[in-house]
Design a protein that fits this description.
A hairpin with a 2-residue loop joins strand 1 and strand 2. Helix 3 packs antiparallel against helix 4. This protein is an all-alpha fold. It has a single domain, classed as Bromodomain-like (Up-down Bundle), CATH 1.20.1550.10. The protein starts with a helix and ends with a helix. The protein has seven helices and two strands, in the order H-H-H-H-H-H-E-E-H. It has a two-stranded antiparallel sheet.
Length: about 160
C-alpha cells in the first residue's frame, strides 16, 4: 500500500492521462461520439493533469492544496458520472440537452429550434461496454477509487503528520 502512496501523484497523473486518452481514442479512432454528460466527466481529468503540471512546475507538489483541489475535481466528475449511470439505467432524468426528447411544439419555428438544439448523442444510449459495464459506470468506479485513495492520502500525509508533531 505504501508504494501507492509514495507514488500517488504519478499514479493519479497516469490514470488521468489514460482516462482522457481512452476517451479521445474511442471518440476519434472508433467514431464513438460522446454525449454531453460524457464530456462533463472528462473535466476532472483535464483539471488533474493541469493542476499536477502547474504544481510540479512551481515545486508545490507537496502542498495539501493540490490534493484538496483533486478532491473537488473528482467529486465534480463523480457527480456527473453517477448521474450518467442513473440516466443510462433510466433511474434518473437527464438534462433536456441530453435526453433527446421534444417538448410541446407550438409552431414550425419551435420544432426547428428544438431539432437543431437536440443532442447528437442521447445520454441514455450506451455506445460500448466492457464486461457489461458502460463507460460511465467504469468512470464512476475509477473516480470513486481515486477519491477514496486521495482522501486516505490526505489523512495519512497531512493530518497524520500534524498529529505526530
Amino acid at each position: 500500500m505504501s508504494i501507492i502512496f509514495n507514488n500517488w501523484i504519478k499514479i493519479i497523473f497516469l490514470l488521468s492521462i489514460t482516462a482522457i486518452g481512452s476517451a479521445l481514442i474511442a471518440e476519434y479512432f472508433f467514431d464513438l461520439a460522446p454525449c454531453k454528460m460524457c464530456l462533463k466527466q472528462r473535466h476532472p481529468y483535464y483539471a488533474v493533469i493541469t493542476l499536477i503540471t502547474l504544481f510540479y512546475l512551481f515545486h508545490l507538489t507537496k502542498k495539501i492544496y493540490l490534493f484538496i483541489l483533486f478532491e473537488v475535481s473528482i467529486i465534480y466528475g463523480l457527480f456527473y458520472s453517477v448521474w450518467h449511470v442513473g440516466i443510462e439505467k433510466k433511474i434518473l432524468a437527464g438534462p433536456k440537452s441530453c435526453s433527446g426528447t421534444l417538448s410541446k411544439i407550438t409552431s414550425l419555428e419551435s420544432l426547428k429550434e428544438q431539432i437543431t438544439n437536440q443532442a447528437i448523442v442521447n445520454c441514455t444510449d450506451i455506445t460500448w461496454t466492457i464486461l457489461g459495464l458502460s463507460a460511465a459506470t467504469i468512470n464512476s468506479l475509477l473516480l470513486f477509487s481515486i477519491l477514496i485513495f486521495n482522501s486516505i492520502f490526505i489523512i495519512r500525509n497531512f493530518y497524520g503528520a500534524q498529529k505526530n508533531n
